[in-house]
Amino acid sequence: MKTRIRKWGNSQGLRLLRYVLRKAHSSVGHQVEIVSRDGAIVVRPGREVRGKHDLKQLVSRMPHSCRTAEEDWGGTAGREVW
Questions:
Q1: Where is pLDDT greater, at 54 or 3?
Q2: In the chain, what's the furthest Cα-to-Cα distance?
Q3: Looking at 1-82, which runs of residues are DSSP E strands?
Q4: Is the pLDDT of residue 76 over 70?
């Protein structure tokens, strides 16, 4: 795919074809990271963190001695199979 860098307000932008986004498993609204490497512009999926916390970071702060017990939520309320 060839495209041109265009002026978009006070910025510059690229338009990407839908099939290119689909092949990259991406769509409108997905976060991407853009870097320049050896004179090339590289666009790759961003690491999206919803909300203010990153689960991996939070779990890494838990003490290794932290052990949780299994919870008993009572009997079934419908046709659940456990």
A1: 3
A2: 63
A3: 6-8, 11-13, 32-37, 40-45
A4: yes
